[in-house]
Amino acid sequence: MLTYLPPVMQAVLLLMVVTAGIYDLRYRRIPNWLTLTGLILGFGLNTFLYPAETSPLGGLKRAALGMGLALLVYFPLYLLRAMGAGDAKLMAAIGSLVGPGNWIVLFVVTAILGGVTALIVLLFAGRIRKTFWNVGWIMSEVVHLRAPYHSSEELDVRSSRGMRMPHGAVIALGTIAFLAAKAVWGR
Q: How many CB atoms lie within 10 A of CB 4?
C-alpha cells in the first residue's frame, strides 16, 4: 500500500502544501497556479522516477491513479458545496505526486486532523449542537437525492452564514504529519 517517496517528491510536496496552507489561511483560497504546478510536477516526477514500475507507463499510471482517487473522494464534496474547488484540486495534485496507496493514508491522517480541528473550532464557537443537527439534515437531504445547500444557506461552503474552516491548512498539517510518520516508521 505505502510506497517509497524520493526526497525530491517529499520536498515538492512539502513546499506545495505549506504554500497552499498559508494562502488558504491568509486569502481563504488556494491558487490555481499552485495546484496546476503540483499536477504537472506529480505527473512529470512520477514518469521520470518510476518509468517501468509495473508497466511501460508505470509512473504515469501511478500519478493518474493518485489524482483520480483524490478526485473521486473530493469532487462529490465540492459538488455538494461541502468543500471548495481549491481543496479538491490540491488533493488531486497531492495524489498525482504520492500515488494512490500513499494518498489513502494521507487522506485518513488529514481527515482525522480535520475532524479534531473542526470539533475544537465548533466548541469555541458554541456550535456543537447546531452542527450535529446540520449533519443529520445533510444526511437526510442526500438520502433523498437533494443538495443540502438548497435548503439551508449555512450548509453552503460559499455562504458567509456557514461555519468554514481553511481545509488547505488542514491538508498541509495532514501532509506534514504523514511525511513525519513515514520518516519515523520508514517506507
A: 12
The Cα–Cα gap between 86 and 133 comes to: 27
Cell numbers describing residue 93: 495534485
- Distance in angstroms between the alpha carbons of the first and the last residue of the chain: 10
Q: What does 137-167 look like in DSSP terms, one character per residue?
A: HHHHHHHTT--HHHH-GGG-TTSTTS----H
Q: CB within 8 A of 132, min separation 6: which ones?
A: none
Cell of 10: 517529499
89 vs 100: CA distance, rounded Å: 15
pLDDT at 187 over 90: no
Contact 98, 49 (CB under 8 A): no
27-53: average pLDDT? 91
pTM score? 0.86
Q: Is the dihedral of CA 34, 160, 154, 175 positive or negative?
A: positive
Q: Does the pLDDT of residue 22 top 70, yes or no?
A: yes
Average pLDDT over residues 102-115: 94
